[in-house]
Specification:
This protein has 390 residues and is mainly alpha-helical. It is 58% helix and 6% strand. Strands 3-5-4 form a three-stranded antiparallel beta sheet. Strands 1-2 form a two-stranded antiparallel ribbon.
Length: 390
C-alpha cells in the first residue's frame, strides 16, 4: 500500500478561487519494491501458465513471420496505447506524419510512440532495462511535443497530478514529490532486474509501480505500457514478437485504470490476472494475423518485384517514397519508382495516402487492413467477454 505525505502548494496559474487558495496537497508515496514478494493463487497461476504458453507458442510457431513484422505489432501497440491517452490516429494518419504532413497532431505522437517502444524493447533484449533506455524512449516520444519537449528525456522536477484540471485540488491521484523520483526509479529498476518472479507478474507489478511514480511530466502511460513489453523481452518471453496488449487495455480503459488504483491500495492480484488474460487474447489473434500476413507476402512475391521491396511490403503497413527509392536504387537501379508504384497500385497492393508530388506515402493494403482487423477482433472479443461475465 502507498503512504501519504503533505506537500506545500501554491498555484502558479490564475483559476477558480478554490484553486488559488489551495496551500497543501496530499501526495502518494509508493513503497519500495526491489525486494517485494508476491505469489499467485491457484486461479492466477493457471492464467499465468496459459499466457506464458501462448507467448512461447506464438514465438516458436509464427516468429519467423512475425519477427519480420515486429514493427507492425509495435505500431499496433503504439496506436492502442496512445488511444488510452485520447490520442487517436489511423494507420494512414501515421503514414502522413512520417513524411511530414501534420494534419493530425496525434499521428506524430503515435509515430514517435512506436519508435520509442521499439527502442526500449530492443534494449531489453540485452538482458537489462536501464534508466538511460527509459529516458531515451521518453526523449523520442516527446521530441515534437509543443508543451513537454523541454522535459523530454529526464525525470520530472515538478509536482504533477492526474485529473482535476489546472490544480491538484480535485485530482484523482497525486504522485510522489519530484525529489523522490530518482530513488524510486532506481528501486523499480532493481525490481525489474530480478529473475525470481513470474515474468508476466513482474511486468504487471513493474507497470503499476511505474504509473504510481509517474516519473515524467507527460508520456507516463505510453512509456509505462512499453515497460511491460520490455520486461517480457528481458525475461525471454516473446524473443521475436511484441504482443500488443494495449489493444485489450484500450478496450477496457475504465477497468484498466481501476486496477491501477486498486494496486495503490495493495490489491495487485487482479491486475496481474488481467495482464495474463490480455496476453492470451492478443496471442490468439496474432496467430490469425501471422497466417493472413504470410499469404499477403506470398502474393507480393508473385509480382516479380525486387526482393528487398517484397520484404518491405510484407512487413510494413505503409511505405514512403524515400524507402522505395532507396530499395530500388540498391537492387534494381533501372526500375523507376513511379512505374513500380503504378504497377503495385494497379494490383491493389498500394493505395496513396498523400496527394502531393514529392515525399509521398502509400498504404500497404494487405498489412494495414490486417492491423485494423486484428484490433477489431480483439476489441469484439473483449467486449463479448465483458457482456457474458457481467
Amino acid at each position: 500500500m502507498h503512504g501519504r505525505v503533505v506537500q506545500r502548494w501554491r498555484s502558479a496559474l490564475r483559476g477558480p478561487r478554490a484553486d488559488r487558495l489551495l496551500t497543501h496537497v496530499v501526495a502518494s508515496v509508493p513503497p519500495a519494491v526491489a525486494e517485494a514478494r508476491w505469489s499467485p493463487d491457484a486461479g492466477c497461476e493457471q492464467l499465468l501458465a496459459h499466457a506464458t504458453h501462448a507467448l512461447r507458442t506464438l514465438d516458436a510457431e509464427h516468429g519467423s513471420v512475425l519477427a519480420g513484422l515486429s514493427s507492425v505489432l509495435v505500431r499496433t501497440e503504439a496506436v492502442a496505447s496512445s488511444r488510452i491517452e485520447h490520442e487517436h490516429a489511423t494507420v494512414d494518419d501515421v503514414a502522413r506524419a512520417e513524411v511530414g504532413i501534420r494534419t493530425n497532431p496525434s499521428a506524430t505522437l503515435v509515430a514517435h510512440a512506436g519508435t520509442a517502444l521499439e527502442r526500449l524493447v530492443a534494449s531489453a533484449a540485452t538482458g537489462t532495462v536501464t534508466a538511460s533506455a527509459l529516458l531515451d524512449a521518453h526523449r523520442v516520444l516527446l521530441a515534437d511535443d509543443p508543451v513537454d519537449r523541454h522535459h523530454a528525456g529526464r525525470w520530472r522536477d515538478v509536482q504533477n497530478w492526474i485529473g482535476g484540471g489546472a490544480s491538484p485540488r480535485l485530482a484523482t491521484y497525486v504522485p510522489p514529490p519530484p525529489e523522490t523520483v530518482p530513488a524510486l526509479m532506481t528501486d523499480l529498476l532493481a525490481f525489474v532486474q530480478r529473475d525470481d518472479l513470474h515474468p508476466i507478474a513482474q511486468a504487471a507489478l513493474a507497470h503499476a509501480q511505474f504509473e504510481s511514480i509517474h516519473p515524467f511530466t507527460d508520456g507516463n502511460g505510453r512509456i509505462g505500457r512499453a515497460l511491460v513489453s520490455a520486461v517480457l523481452r528481458r525475461r525471454g518471453l516473446g524473443t521475436r514478437v511484441t504482443a500488443p496488449v494495449a489493444v485489450v487495455l484500450a478496450t477496457e480503459r475504465s477497468r484498466y485504470f481501476g486496477l491501477l488504483e486498486a494496486a495503490r491500495d495493495g490489491a495487485v492480484d487482479d491486475l496481474v490476472a488481467d495482464l495474463a488474460i490480455a496476453i492470451g487474447t492478443v496471442c490468439d489473434e496474432a496467430t490469425v494475423s501471422a497466417l493472413t500476413l504470410a499469404q499477403h507476402g506470398d502474393r507480393i512475391r508473385g509480382l516479380g518485384i525486387a526482393p528487398g521491396l517484397v520484404a518491405v511490403l510484407a512487413q510494413q503497413p505503409f511505405v514512403t517514397e524515400d524507402t522505395l527509392d532507396r530499395v530500388l536504387w540498391a537492387e534494381r537501379p533501372g526500375d523507376r519508382t513511379d512505374a513500380v508504384v503504378h504497377r503495385l497500385c494497379g494490383a491493389g497492393v498500394l493505395r496513396p495516402v498523400t496527394a502531393r508530388r514529392r515525399r509521398r506515402a502509400w498504404r500497404v493494403v494487405g498489412v494495414a487492413d490486417e492491423i485494423e482487423a486484428f484490433v477489431d477482433r480483439v476489441t469484439d472479443g473483449v467486449r463479448a467477454r465483458a457482456r457474458s461475465s457481467g
